[in-house]
Design a protein that fits this description.
The protein is an alpha+beta fold. The chain folds into two domains: 256 residues, 2-Layer Sandwich (BirA Bifunctional Protein, domain 2); 89 residues, Anticodon-binding domain (Rossmann fold). Helices cover 37% and strands 20% of the residues. It has 15 helices and 16 strands. Strand 15 and strand 16 form a beta hairpin. It is elongated, with a radius of gyration of 27 Å. The two termini are 45 Å apart. It binds histidyl-adenosine monophosphate. Histidyl-adenosine monophosphate binds next to strand 6, strand 10, strand 11 and helix 11. This is Histidine--tRNA ligase. InterPro entries: aa-tRNA-synth_II (IPR006195), aa-tRNA-synth_II/BPL/LPL (IPR045864), Anticodon-bd (IPR004154), Anticodon-bd_dom_sf (IPR036621), His-tRNA-ligase (IPR015807), HisRS-like_core (IPR041715), HisRS/HisZ (IPR004516). It is found in: Cytoplasm. Its main location: cytoplasm. GO terms for molecular function: ligase activity.
C-alpha cells in the first residue's frame, strides 16, 4: 500500500474529489477563512502570522502546566542537541501575545485587533473532529480591559457564524473571575474533593494538587458522576465584586445587541491563562462534547510570558468543526465555478496560438486551454466537464483571420471575437 498521511491529520481536497466531505473540502476551508476575514477586517482587525513552532517554554508558561495540552499533547521538535526543544504550536494566543511584546506593538493604537488562521497541533486521542493537526481562525484584542471589548469579541464570533449561515449555534457564557476568586474556588474544590481522592481518576487526582478547577473539565465518566453527586457549586458563586460587575456589563451589551447567549455557571475552558469572561460556542450537529469555538479574557498572560502587563481577550474556532456543523445543517455553500472561457485548437500547429490567446485573456478572467488539439465535439465536451461558461475553438481559418468563434454553452449562442478585442469582450462577461 502506498504511504498514508499521519493519524489525526487530513488532506484538504479539490472540488470533485471522490472522497470529498465538507470538512476536507479545500474550497470550503477558504470560504470559512474568507468569511471570517470579511467580518473581522470590517471591525478593524489586522492579519498577523507567527511561526508554526515556538519555544516549549512559551507554550508551558502561556497555556499552563496543568492543562492537558501541556501535560499530554505537545508535539516536541528536537533539533539542536542542547536545546530544550521547540513545540508545534497548539494554539495561537500565546504566540500572538509574544509577538506583540517582542515587536513593540504596544506603539500601535489600542485596542489593537489582530486575526490569523492556520494549523495548530495537539497530540490528542483522535476522534471525529478531534484531530492532531487542525485549523483555527483566531481573533485577539490587546490593550483594553473594558467589557465593551469582550462583548464586541463575542459579537464578532457570532457574526462570523451568522454570515456562514449556521443556525444551530449556542453561546455559553461564563466568567472564571479574577485570580483571587479562582484561588478561593480552588480552595473550596480541594476541601470538597480531598476526602473523595480514591474515587477520582488518576488524572483528576493530579489535577487536585495542580489546579482543582480542571477536575470539572474531566473527560472521565466516573469523575463527572462524582461531580454531580457532590453537587459542586459553580465558579460563578465565587466571583468578586469587580469580576461580577464586568460580567454583568458584558451580558448587558450582548442583550442590547441581540446576541443570544446562555449563562453557563460551570464554564472552565481548557487553558490556564483565562480570567473573567470565558465562553464557548456549541452546535448540536457536532456533539455536545466538542465546542465549535471558545475564547476568553487573559489579562495576566503578557506578564506570565515575562513582558509588561497588557490586557487581552480573544477567541478561536476550529475550522473543521465549523465545516462539520455546516455539513450537519446541509447549509448552502458557494460553488467554485469553472473558467469563463475554455479554448482549444483543432490542429496541433495551433495549440500554441490558442494557449497564447488564453494567456492574454487571463489578464481579465479565468481562462483555460486544451493542452492538445481537439475535435470540436470533444472540445465542447471538455469545456462542459470543466464547467466553463464559454468555449472557443481555433481552426486554421480562425488562426489566419485572428478571430475566435465563442460559444455560450448555456444558450448555444455564437459570436466572432477578434483576438485584439478578446479582453474587452471577457471583461463585459465577468
Ligand atoms: P481552544 O478552546 O483550545 O481555545 O480551541 C478553540 C477551538 O479550536 C475549539 O473550540 C475547537 O473548535 C478547535 N479545536 C481545539 N482542539 C481541536 C482538535 N484537537 N481538533 C479539532 N479542533 C480542535 C484556544 O485555542 C484559544 N487559543 C482560544 C483563544 C483565543 N482564547 C483567547 N484567544
Amino acid at each position: 500500500m502506498a504511504l498514508q498521511r499521519p493519524k489525526g491529520t487530513q488532506d484538504h481536497l479539490p472540488d470533485g474529489s471522490p472522497k470529498l466531505s465538507r470538512d476536507v473540502q479545500a474550497s470550503a476551508f477558504r470560504h470559512v477563512q474568507n468569511t471570517a476575514q470579511r467580518v473581522l477586517e470590517r471591525a478593524g482587525a489586522q492579519f498577523i502570522n507567527t511561526p508554526l513552532f515556538e519555544e516549549a517554554e512559551l507554550v508551558k508558561r502561556g497555556v499552563g502546566g496543568s492543562t492537558d495540552i501541556v501535560r499530554k499533547e505537545m508535539f516536541t521538535v528536537y533539533y539542536f542537541g542542547d536545546h530544550g526543544g521547540y513545540v508545534l504550536r497548539p494554539e495561537g494566543t500565546a504566540s500572538i501575545v509574544r509577538a506583540y511584546l517582542q515587536n513593540g506593538l504596544k506603539q500601535l493604537p489600542a485596542p489593537l485587533k489582530l486575526w490569523t488562521h492556520g494549523p495548530m497541533f495537539r497530540a490528542e486521542n483522535v476522534q471525529k473532529l478531534r484531530l492532531r493537526q487542525f485549523h483555527q481562525v483566531d481573533y485577539e484584542v490587546l490593550g483594553s480591559e473594558g467589557p465593551l471589548v469582550d462583548a464586541e469579541a463575542i459579537w464578532l464570533m457570532w457574526e462570523v457564524v451568522r454570515e456562514l449561515g449556521l443556525t444551530g449555534v449556542r453561546v455559553k457564557l461564563g466568567s472564571i473571575g479574577d485570580p483571587e476568586d479562582r484561588e478561593a474556588y480552588n480552595a473550596y474544590l480541594r476541601e470538597l474533593f480531598t476526602p473523595q481522592l480514591e474515587r477520582l481518576s488518576g488524572d483528576s487526582q493530579d489535577r487536585l494538587t495542580r489546579n482543582p478547577m480542571r477536575i470539572l473539565d474531566s473527560k472521565s465518566a466516573e469523575d463527572q458522576a462524582l461531580i454531580r453527586e457532590l453537587d459542586v457549586r459553580p465558579m460563578l458563586d465565587f466571583l468578586g465584586e469587580e469580576a461580577r460587575a464586568h460580567f454583568e456589563a458584558v451580558q448587558r451589551y450582548l442583550s442590547v445587541w441581540d446576541v443570544p447567549f446562555d449563562v453557563d455557571p460551570g464554564i472552565v475552558r481548557g487553558l490556564d491563562y483565562y480570567r473573567r469572561t470565558a465562553w464557548e460556542l456549541h452546535h448540536e450537529g457536532i456533539g455536545a462534547k466538542s465546542a465549535l469555538g471558545g475564547g476568553g479574557r487573559y489579562d495576566g498572560l503578557a506578564e506570565q510570558l515575562g513582558g509588561a502587563a497588557v490586557p487581552g481577550i480573544g477567541w478561536a474556532f476550529g475550522i473543521e468543526r465549523v465545516l462539520g456543523a455546516l455539513e450537519a445543517e446541509g447549509a448552502a455553500f458557494p460553488e467554485t465555478g469553472g473558467p469563463l472561457l475554455f479554448l482549444a485548437a483543432m490542429d496541433e500547429e495551433n495549440v500554441g496560438l490558442a494557449a497564447r490567446v488564453a494567456l492574454q485573456g487571463r489578464r481579465v478572467a479565468r481562462v483555460e486551454f486544451a493542452y492538445r488539439a481537439l475535435k470540436p465535439g470533444n472540445a465542447f465536451k471538455e469545456a462542459d466537464r470543466r464547467r466553463a461558461r464559454l468555449a472557443a475553438i481555433i481552426g486554421s481559418d480562425e488562426a489566419a483571420r485572428g478571430v475566435l468563434n465563442v460559444k455560450d454553452l448555456a444558450s448555444g449562442e455564437q459570436r466572432e471575437v477578434p483576438f485584439a478585442e478578446l479582453n474587452t469582450f471577457l471583461a463585459e462577461q465577468v
